Automatic annotation (TrEMBL):
Signal peptide: 1-22
Name the record gives this protein: Subtilase
Coiled-coil segments on the chain, per record: none
Subtilisin-like protease fibronectin type-III domain ranges (all copies): 668-767
Protein family: Belongs to the peptidase S8 family.
Active site: 145 (charge relay system), 219 (charge relay system), 552 (charge relay system)
Length: 771
């Protein structure tokens, strides 16, 4: 039971079956939760009374005035000016009233949301990136996650030069982790746990999770090596997906910031980590975790990301695993690159053949043992092999009667526990193999793979129902399972992953999210040596690489790609890099058909894929970009009707919004995509809105002409219809007018706007909603 609590939560986080929209817990949901909770206190630096020598003394005095027992967990200097502490609600209210206190915000708990992907993304031929190859090794990618497993081959530093002199980070020492654990690839490693310990009431020890940067769960090692792992030949999981594993930015440096533990990732720790990352000198940040979307002043991750962006750091974040439900997104602030998940063109096919000769194709598990491969054996439904039929249908622990399943193939429904645990239950009960069937209540037809404990084939609901019909038609139903190994060039690909969270944006409907898609299904990358590939405490199998899925996996792909672009274009702002990735993203296959949604098999929409699937080579030369400055983001908050205190909580700045509210609007926010919300009108009156955008030329002089697709219920016009750029960095504006009549509430329609000079296509999706 050594890692039981940690592993069960960890697998729940990574399993697409159980990774529904990440929910933020409240203290009353924690067993034996104390009456106090953690708060993040934002102080107005300019209001420090002169009687105090420094800010620390001021913070301590302010805190002691409301509580004799409270201690500061962290003090913050870069993300915000302030501190975090544990207070009762009454004490928090008293502190709010003190001079110089901007806000007292309850801490949020967040949850964690490759051999084939470089080639799939067009990085097999790296000539386009050669001009920035030397500069890439000067960039440091900071990954906020569960830490790093420094012994992984993917952190080897062969061929890397000295660590950049600009790097100020360090390797923090802890159990099984010392200064020599870092090298010229893994240049920094820190850990932040005070918020976790205070919130949960648990103390980290060797039996729970290492109080060090060491990654004992695998998630952080997987994400950081996806972003920037060094090339490793012969990488595979049990012989599957064999090839050379490489991160997106293979010569960039990695700094691991461990903020996620066996109880989640806590806001006070996240802010402290980003505070240090800014001081250390990271260039790109990756955050594969999130919670329910909320106002930006109440979201610690959004606040921390704003501070990083304000200093020129690109921040990539996962969209969440709340699909296929609408408005399920995490990390929707406009300064994030919010990344959804897609499939790649590699799969692991297998099939079930039943006694009447019918064959049902699905996805095989990554089982390392002897396969059945044509051996005919009896098949049983878990529902009928249990005294608790409902539990047996899902193959829950202890639910299957060994006498009824021994030596047989067992059908198990998706849901209620992890996929890998179901296969362990089958093995424990003496079952020979498993058929894993999408459950009717999951509404998810997507098939993913696991490193199961018995031979397994995953099937869709429809095919599972057909097999059950066969079971009921004969006295002794038989079947066999055949696996076909790794299959390449699978089409169609990419497809929007079922679990990938979808829009519209519930906080700011005028900003379309997610921004882009990137590979997030069945991704192979480095793994920890502490737990097996399923993460279950009984899984003692040791692997160097693992295959897992989630927007946690798609986020670091974009992190690494952003580093590649930054190495070639170091002068570009984070917004320009995001714009390049968005406007060059593709939203159709080569045959012209729209990227599919795995939920339905029908064309996906910008609420699923954002601007489209990333195309890194095209993003190096986008022609034009939609740039944004720090002032733009501040004005965005002004016209979002935030109060002065709320804006300062996000920006750490005193802001006067009078000018912004006179001259600015959300419709003028220079975002690379368009979200146009219309309010429902009972009299069917026409509604007209205008959006203004500014394009910056980052290519040669050229004339761009606009093409706009039209939709049934809205008329779109652009003025002017052509833009002539005569020099680099020249900026030109245009206006788009959208006119529409009334539509039923919750209706949505989609269009597209493209500027082209004959060489470049600068594309923007348009999403209309009526509410």
């Amino acid at each position: 039971m050594k890692f039981f609590h940690f592993i069960i939560l960890f697998i729940m986080l990574m399993s697409i079956t159980t990774l529904s929209q990440c929910h933020v817990d409240n203290d009353h949901n924690l067993k034996h939760a104390p009456k106090k909770r953690t708060y993040i206190i934002h102080m107005d630096e300019s209001n420090k009374p002169t009687v105090f020598n420094d800010h620390l003394n001021w913070y301590e005095s302010s805190l002691k005035s409301v509580s004799d027992s409270a201690n500061m967990l962290y003090t913050y200097t870069d993300v915000i000016h302030g501190f975090s502490t544990r207070l009762s609600p009454k004490e928090a209210e008293q502190l709010k009233k003190q001079l110089g206190v901007v806000s007292v915000v309850p801490e949020i708990r967040y949850e964690l949301h490759t051999t084939g992907t470089p080639e799939f993304l067009g990085l097999g031929n790296t000539k386009a990136f050669l001009s920035g190859s030397d500069k890439l090794s000067n960039l440091v990618i900071g990954v906020l996650d569960t830490g790093a497993w420094p012994e992984s081959q993917s952190y080897h530093d062969e061929g890397l030069g000295p660590i950049p002199s600009s790097w100020k980070g360090k390797c923090e020492v802890g159990p099984s982790f010392n200064s020599s654990s870092c090298n010229k690839k893994l240049v920094g490693a820190r850990f932040f746990y005070r918020g976790y310990e205070e919130r949960t009431g648990r103390r980290l020890d060797k039996n729970s999770d290492s109080k060090s940067p060491r990654d004992e769960g695998g998630h952080g090692t997987h994400t950081s090596t996806t972003a920037a792992g060094s090339p490793v030949s012969g990488a595979n999981l049990f012989g599957y997906a064999s090839g050379t594993a490489s991160g997106m930015a293979p010569t960039a440096r990695v700094a691991a910031y461990k903020v996620c533990w066996n109880g989640g990732c806590y806001g006070s720790d996240v802010i402290a980590a980003v505070d240090k990352a800014i001081q250390d000198g990271v260039h790109v940040l990756s955050m594969s975790f999130g919670g329910v979307a909320r106002e930006y002043y109440a979201d610690s991750v959004a606040i921390a990301a704003f501070a990083a962006t304000a200093r020129g750091i690109v921040v990539s974040a996962s969209a969440g695993n709340g699909g296929p439900w609408s408005q399920s997104l995490s990390n929707v602030a406009p300064w994030f690159i919010t990344v959804g998940a897609s499939t790649i063109d590699r799969d692991f096919p297998g099939y079930v053949r039943v006694g009447n000769g019918k064959l049902f194709e699905g996805i095989s598990s990554l089982y390392p043992g002897k396969p059945l491969q044509g051996e005919w054996i009896l098949i049983v439904d878990g529902y009928n092999a249990s005294e608790k039929t409902e539990d047996g249908a899902y193959c829950l622990p202890g639910s299957l009667v060994p006498e009824k399943v021994a030596g047989k193939i067992v059908i198990c429904n998706r849901g209620r526990n992890t996929r890998a645990q179901k296969s362990l239950v089958v093995e424990d009960s003496g079952g020979a193999a498993m058929i894993f069937v999408n459950d009717r209540r999951s509404y998810k037809e997507e098939l993913v793979t696991d490193a199961d404990f018995v031979p397994t084939i995953a099937l869709s609901l429809k095919k599972g129902d057909a097999i059950r019909s066969y079971l009921n038609s004969v006295a002794n139903p038989i079947a066999t399972i055949v696996v076909e190994g790794t299959k390449l060039a699978v089409q169609p690909s990419p497809v929007v992953a079922t679990f990938s969270s979808r829009g519209p944006n519930s906080v700011t409907p005028e900003v379309l999210k997610p921004d882009v898609l990137a590979p997030g299904v069945n991704i192979l990358a480095a793994w920890t040596g502490k737990v097996g590939p399923t993460g279950l405490y009984r899984d003692t199998r040791q692997v160097s690489f693992n295959i897992i899925s989630g927007t946690s996996m798609s986020c670091p792909h974009v992190t690494g790609l952003a580093a590649l672009i930054k190495s070639v274009h170091p002068e570009w702002s984070p917004a320009a890099i995001k714009s390049a990735l968005m406007t060059t993203a593709y939203w159709t296959y080569k045959n012209g058909e729209t990227i599919q949604d795995a939920v339905t098999g029908n064309p996906a929409t910008p609420f699923e894929y954002g601007a489209g699937h990333v195309d890194p080579v095209a993003a190096l030369d986008p022609g034009l970009v939609y740039d944004l400055t720090l002032q733009d983001y501040i004005w965005f908050l002004c016209v979002s009707d935030y109060t002065t205190e709320q804006i300062k909580t996000v920006t750490n700045r005193n802001v006067n919004c009078k000018y912004a509210k006179r001259k600015y609007s959300l419709q003028n926010f220079n975002y690379p995509s368009f979200a146009v919300p219309f309010e429902y009108s009972t009299d069917n009156a026409s509604i007209t809105v205008k959006y203004t955008r500014i394009l910056t030329n980052v290519g040669a002089p050229a004339t761009y002409k606009v093409v706009v697709s039209q939709v049934e219920s809205a008329k779109i016009s652009v003025n002017p219809e052509s833009l002539t750029f005569v020099e680099a960095n020249q900026k030109l504006a245009y206006t788009v007018t959208f006119a529409a009549g009334s539509k039923p509430s919750s209706t949505s329609q989609f269009a597209r706007l493209e500027w082209s000079d004959g060489k470049h296509i600068v594309g923007s999706p348009i999403a209309f909603t009526w509410s």
